[in-house]
Amino acid sequence: MKGLRIKVAMAKTKKTKKAKRPNWDVYFLGIVNEVGKRATCDRGKSGCVVVKDKRILTTGYVGAPAGLPHCDEVDHMLRDVLYPDGSVTKHCVRTAHAEQNAICQAARFGIALEGATFYCKMEPCFVCAKMIVNTGARRVVCEKRYHAGEDTRRLFKQAKIELVVLSEKVEKYKGQR
Predict the structure, then answer these.
(1) Alpha helices (H) along 37-135
(2) pLDDT tens-digit profile of 65-99?
(3) In terms of CB atoms within 10 Å, which end of the chain has fewer, N or C?
């Protein structure tokens, strides 16, 4: 069979449209919304995903401390919060926030968060923002604004943490100002 020539026919294929893929921020915020479905307090249903180098390091969602009763089992533990302008809001203090739980999970399993990006449903509250600063994070990406986010925005600016909020819409829930 010396000199046998094999002819390979290449099938002509139509060019297909390239699938539209979400950018990384939109992708991870989609995961935030899935994580938030595990939340046990319906006043926010928030999730958090912490990412570094496009890899998920840890997640957290709103819920009572491990092993303790959740809002969806025993109801909310509401407290009044008084603001300098005289307005009062209701806050559920039974739960830890999604960002707090993500940070605690990282600490529990020895995962360093320095240089990471936090993805959140809404801008973190001031307490969570201070915790995020202390992790050494470099960036926070949120889907929406938080009704009391002014202090958080100032803190992140001062700490040189980039804050990206995709929508100016404010997350709404009962009892907020």
Answers:
(1) 71-74, 98-108, 126-135
(2) 999 999 889 999 999 988 888 888 888 899 999 99
(3) N
Instruction: Supply the pTM of this predicted model.
Output: 0.85
CA distance 174 to 160: 32
Contacts of 18 (CB under 8 A, 6+ apart): none
CA distance linking residue 128 with residue 98, whole number of Å:
9
Instruction: Please check whether residue 113 is in contact with residue 57, taking contact to mean a CB–CB distance below 8 angstroms.
Output: yes
* Separation between Cα atoms, residue 6 and residue 37, nearest integer Å: 58
Say how far apart CA 91 and CA 43 lie, in whole Å: 9
Cβ-Cβ contacts under 8 Å for 12 (sequence gap 6 or more): none
Q: What is the pLDDT of residue 27?
A: 98
The one catalytic residue in 99, 123, 143, 171 is: 99
How distant is the alpha carbon of residue 117 from its chain centre?
A: 9
